[in-house]
Amino acid sequence: MLTNNKNVINWVDEMVALCKPDNVVWIDGSEEQLNALREQAVASGELEALNQEKLPGCYLHRTLQNDVARVEDRTFICSRDEKDAGPTNHWCDPKEMYAKLTPMYDGVMKGRTMYVIPYSMGPIGSPLAKVGVELTDSIYVVLNMDIMTRMGKAAFENLGETSNDFVRGLHSKADIDPEKRYIVHFPEDNTIWSINSAYGGNVLLGKKCFALRIASYQGKNEGWMAEHMLILGIENPQGEVTYISAAFPSACGKTNLAMLIPPEVYSKQGYKVWCVGDDIAWLKPGKDGRLYAINPENGFFGVAPGTNAKSNFNALESTKKNTIFTNVAHNLDDNTVWWEGLDKNPPENAIDWLGKPWNGKESTEKGAHPNSRFTAPAINCPCISPEFNNPEGVPISAMIFGGRRAKTAPLVYQSFDWNHGVFVGSTMASETTAAAAGAVGVVRRDPMAMLPFCGYHMGDYFAHWLEMGEKLGDKAPKIFNVNWFRTDDEGHFIWPGFGDNMRVLMWIVDRCKGNAEAVETAIGYEPKAEDINIEGLDITVDTVKELLTVDKELWKEEAKGIHEFYGKFGDRLPEELSRQLAALEERLAK
Ligand code: GTP
Ligand code: SPV
Ligand code: MN
Predict the structure, then answer these.
(1) CATH number assigned to the domain with residue range 302-372, chosen from the 4 options 2.30.130.10, 2.170.8.10, 3.20.20.450, 3.40.640.10
(2) Which pLDDT value is given to residue 29?
(3) What global pTM score does this model have?
(4) Which residues are catalytic?
(5) What residues flank ion ligand 3 with Cβ within 5 A?
(6) C-beta separation of 251 from 433 below 8 A
């Protein structure tokens, strides 16, 4: 045991009595212990060691075909009152859910080992950090948690001997039976139960389950925010850094934006981009009244397909050592990995994500699953921010919302003020991706990119955003919306995206500093097309103009869709948002 904390010990005892593992191993985080686990996982086939010269410390893992993404329809928020889960979450009475799952956990770890993982979300010692303990029967989970969190003994030091403020996570692979898969949150008990999955967001309980679903609930009660946001800093040639956070739905470009390489027109002037985080931000007002953000994670669980030296050099570099690859193709010629979009040279002698022999030159099947991922330590990232471990976090000047919209949303616009920005975030919509099980490419509302991650009633969540704005007053970040995904009539993306998104960020930074003009439109402030720097691009100002058009007819349709969406929230929809919608309709009618 690594702690004298009775709350931890009693709970672990209880869960051991329930799951009945043959052994219980407390994870102290030492390299010795982790190496032994790596060896064990390789011996059992759970992991395959990759080419240790080309990819030192790297391993490959495959999950079952039925277990490759988050499962939103099996994810529950079990608040005591159904109304507190709200219309966007699946709910079940906590008593009923405990009663249903307890027999499933009973004896589930017989013949297995239970690992007790203490971890900190956020830098150890940070006033914004929080402790969790995950119990799991999966070595893969232990090794991923080691990369994704500050894991081990030190996390308990942060908790102290008497505190009860830790999140209790219980995970078992069980039989990986999709019919009995449950990802369940009890926000009022600080508890997460996950069973019958062994994939990413379903089982790395510090990530979506704690750092978003439970933490969003805690944040509402404690006056802070947990958001599905990247955090980046743009350093100008004078050395001043402006920090931006951005919420895009799953697989819509957070990792890519967070580590972008500035186009030459900026790099030659001395601009730099620093990555603080690529998926989750915890934000809290600081002593000076501004909003400060930390990245609660310690690594990246990033989408592999599409990652290459050109699209995201920094992410690719991050995966060159001490990384776990999940569901990518295995190149047998040199024992490395491959995925669609890595390069134009797929291996001929390979194993695909399903574990079958695969010839990438001939096969029409994909070698890697579209939601295949890498788990890479943040410190590997060449542009990791010097502030990454700053316990106080970084001050946020701008917050950006965005999604995949083929038509409606323009390249960029700024909200009129905070409340209007909350309206813009609350009405976000995006095409679905492979990050969650289900249809891909269907437009759905995904407020603040939090639809699958808000641990309480989304109407109350909107109210919390409005309250935070009141608290922050004129120190509140400015709010923007972007869309890198507008397409032409042939369905091609019009905007080059990736590193060139910096050109849009620069307008945003200039707006924050009062250095750029804007044009007022029905939906918000837009840049003048000439104010987006296209030097070095093969697109024209007219293309930028086209990207900035606001089609009033489309937006009138949009407003109808928003009415319908808002209707779900009944009297828990803040009146301010109804007013914002009415104001938008008035502006569109003009
Ligand atoms: P999660 O980890 O699921 O939360 O996703 P994310 O938001 O971090 O998404 P990520 O950056 O991994 O991008 C997902 C996909 O979008 C990849 O296939 C990228 O190649 C693609 N993508 C990212 N940025 C851009 C862009 O600016 N333009 C275009 N066209 N595609 C992009
Ligand atoms: C997402 O789906 O938004 C992810 C991947 O970041 S997972 O951790 O699986 O949720
Ligand atoms: Mn995510």
Answers:
(1) 2.170.8.10
(2) 96
(3) 0.98
(4) 252
(5) 250, 279
(6) yes
